[in-house]
User: Fold this.
Amino acid sequence: MGGWGFAIRNDAGKLEAAGAGQIAVVASQLQAEAIACLQGMKSVAEQGMMHLEVETNCQILMNALCSSDWDAAPEGMIFRELKFFIASS
Assistant:
């Protein structure tokens, strides 16, 4: 069991939105990071925000979003969904 959370700040650093939730079955910290990123992006899209900058302390997640090197990893489905979401939004 695990959890995810995100905070959305504007360009002045003011908190605009935040969210958190549970993951019934979590396989890794990387999976939880990726789910948090996906939930945050979905929240941004629902609020009509168009320009965003993703900040994370997880270098592997950033590498996975910037290349296809991690697409075959156990968390690859989430990475591909994130990249599709970014490209289509």
Remarks:
- Strands lie at 2-9, 15-23.
- The chain is about 45% helix and 20% strand.
- The radius of gyration is 13 Å.
- Residues 15 and 78 are 26 Å apart (CA to CA).
